[in-house]
Input
Amino acid sequence: MTTLPDATHHSLIAGEPAKGTDGVVRAIDPARNEETGPEFTTLAESQEQAAAEAAAEAFGIYRKLTDADRAAFLTTVAENINAAGEEIIATAMTETGLPQQRLTGELARTVNQLKMFAKLVANGDHHSVRTEPALPDRTPLPRPDLRQRKLPLGPVVVFGASNFPLAFSTAGGDTASALAAGCPVIFKAHLAHPGTGLLVAQAIAKAVADHNLPAGVFSLVYGRGTTVGQSLVKHPAIKAVGFTGSRFGGTSIMATAAARPEPIPVYAEMSSVNPVMVLDSAIKGDSTALAEGFITSLNGSAGQLCTVPGLIFVPGDETGDTFLANVKNALAETAGVTMLTPGICSSRVQGEKRLTSMPGVTEVGRGTDGQTANALGPAVFSTDVETFLTHKELSEEIFGATCLAVRYASAGELQKVASRIEGQLTATLHLDTEDPGDVALAADLVELLELKAGRVLVNGWPTGVDVGDAIVHGGPFPATSDGRSTSVGTAAIDRFQRLVAYQNLPAALHPAPVHEDNPWDVPQRTDFLSQLR
Amino acid sequence: MTTLPDATHHSLIAGEPAKGTDGVVRAIDPARNEETGPEFTTLAESQEQAAAEAAAEAFGIYRKLTDADRAAFLTTVAENINAAGEEIIATAMTETGLPQQRLTGELARTVNQLKMFAKLVANGDHHSVRTEPALPDRTPLPRPDLRQRKLPLGPVVVFGASNFPLAFSTAGGDTASALAAGCPVIFKAHLAHPGTGLLVAQAIAKAVADHNLPAGVFSLVYGRGTTVGQSLVKHPAIKAVGFTGSRFGGTSIMATAAARPEPIPVYAEMSSVNPVMVLDSAIKGDSTALAEGFITSLNGSAGQLCTVPGLIFVPGDETGDTFLANVKNALAETAGVTMLTPGICSSRVQGEKRLTSMPGVTEVGRGTDGQTANALGPAVFSTDVETFLTHKELSEEIFGATCLAVRYASAGELQKVASRIEGQLTATLHLDTEDPGDVALAADLVELLELKAGRVLVNGWPTGVDVGDAIVHGGPFPATSDGRSTSVGTAAIDRFQRLVAYQNLPAALHPAPVHEDNPWDVPQRTDFLSQLR
Output
């Protein structure tokens, strides 16, 4: 079932349907392995230029909206998506196999993060204004009047994720933060959920029209393979890129962006195995509950979450044996759920074959397969630290509910691993926080893991990312292309801004956020250094 | 004259002299075109690995200093440089040809910016702490305790500038901001002022020893050509690069950094012609004073400043003729001063030859040559907007006191130029701020120029960069490699930090800046979103 009319649909460039000349695609219902929904035409490489040009033109007006107007627009986007929520969820269920409850939560998150950015923009915090009034009598040189703020970078191309058809797709975190910053967005639709994408795009386009904004503020483009995307990244009007997907896809875009005559920033969220380190004292508590919590986190959304625990370090001794026995029991009671696409499912099968073909890797346990197609049960394998550190491929992500348990013999082995692993989105410790020995060990590990991950957790599971002011969803390469930033939360807006200063401008020429009358009532930090000792 | 002993000197790796095996270099006194000062051995490519390894080891300790300890260290660096000021200035005068007054001012700036970062670090603002305490009763999901802060990236390689042997060299802005962030620094010495570099490096190394810090916190390396520098950029221990120099040098380093297995950020400040637009009303005032101010800005430090006005837009009518006649008079009364190196001087001569060989470019006037070697007089050439926009090479930087005056026929031509020029460090407007027509035109131009430059000025000259909280010394490519940032002022510290969040850590595991007891008394932004409407 889909609520889109059963006609052929097209890209939505600056509010108008744009018929692609590169053929058509249809979604696949992964629960049935059958095509579903209408056809979508895909653009040829030359056709997406129009979206870039419209975005460049729209930027001139969109970036100059008052904070209040931009906040109102973001709120309307949120409301329009909410209003179309039933159709969007129904379409997404068919196209992605994700259950209604998950998609209902994801829609709420998508709406809420748009509203969060509306609040932030209405406050004006994102301008990061700093002023230093003139000091004509300063010696040896007078100080000029200086006013610093952040400006939007310009049109942004966003590549959506397969695994969050709403919250990290058409109106997801990258789109919301770029629009909040004042950047028009060209969204490269994910072809695994083309109908969901179009419904959300229509909600955004309606908000653009509702607010009489230039239509080029938002476009949705369908294109097969990577050609159209890479071509957009090369377009001189594009000033930044947001991406969520594979390491291969992300590094390709990084290379394209770096090779431009004018290189541009790329924010690619790519791959992470999210190590979890289970210390002795954690298992001495309720080891059964710990194992069940682990498998629930592993199998949720079929393990297709950027922060799924794909690597867990377990003591090599008998307490660890007990824990893994509990993991095996938990797996036996767990059924697989439909994966997003047949391709993702078969990649996971291949990945597990590579794992088990390696000497020193054994299977701990496996859940049952679900009733639908592509519903592979969750699986846990095990090896030891030496094997893990010797074979780099054991630290590569297998997307889905597959986890490698690595048995460690000593605290020293854990520290060695923590200092050698690649960059991660998250790193997690489980311990009894009343156990002085493990707290001391955890303190050492936090110091190592904070250098490797964007978020460090204790006694929780990394899946489930809170959207707020203090969250970080990022991390050193290869977790992301730019570990300085976050793609979730208020700080995500910073990715699409740059600094500019104004020196000795008369008040008549001051942009509103830095104006001494502060007409938008934005936070201004004035003469900060003189307030310090 | 130099105050370094007349022996052979070496790189200073982690506090110890490291004899290079790739030959020796000596400085050249550009005022006499003669070698001066002692010999310095240059490292072979393999030899600088030791500096990277020492920096990586030092990072583990250095990054964990308390804010107070790191601030005290930065203050000692400043004091040690100040204490050696006389020797440093004498050596720099011989090696660079810059006059004592300029170097005295530059030394003060170098010391003051270290002290500014010490103040900033002591305050703790740079941690950018945000906290969101747990909300166990939030629906539909409880909120975990989340604490966000910024962490130093790791060891940084800094390439110094020829034109600021102190403020943008060994202990200059990049070094100061990286050390302030908690990053060890490996400084690639500029071979135009090797003795100055060593004296400053010794002052830093003494501060490292004074504070009992790991010696790898700072190293100075001499290497010929780009081999040693590029090799350091490739070293896996290096996590960021600061660079000030040519577009060719900067883009080479960008390419190397992007091609690493783990790409790293590069902050390269490269080239800028700093357009100045003189509106009609500015000339109707004191056109003679305006012309004199222009030539003073152009010829200061022999025009060898990143922000020198290399491009000035002048009305095509008679008022513009009058202004350029005044410029010619000002030039006639101005003598050239010694340039930094014979190579820089001959590049400038070649650049001016290319200019005058182009059809449509004529010479407006030229100052006299100075009495020393390499003291080419300042020169101004002119062309029209059409010629300027047709020949891209006319917008390329000629380093030194060379400026191209472009005659414009209309406000429309100025707007066209403002929308087409490449990224710049600065853009300047001159106008009578009581003239309503020119204020309206200036408002349009500010909106165009703020997209192209890091700093927009009115009725001043771009040379002379104030070091404070609201300054921006940056700008879109090719002015810098990363227009989001600044290399001068407090915000420069941000370039060497990344975000990390801690979720549900017990207080015993909280790093000090995010700890609820706030033992370092740092600014913490708590529950920000709940305070917004």
Observations:
- Residues 275-458 of chain B form a domain with the Aldehyde Dehydrogenase; Chain A, domain 2 fold (CATH 3.40.309.10).
- The mean pLDDT of chain B is 96.
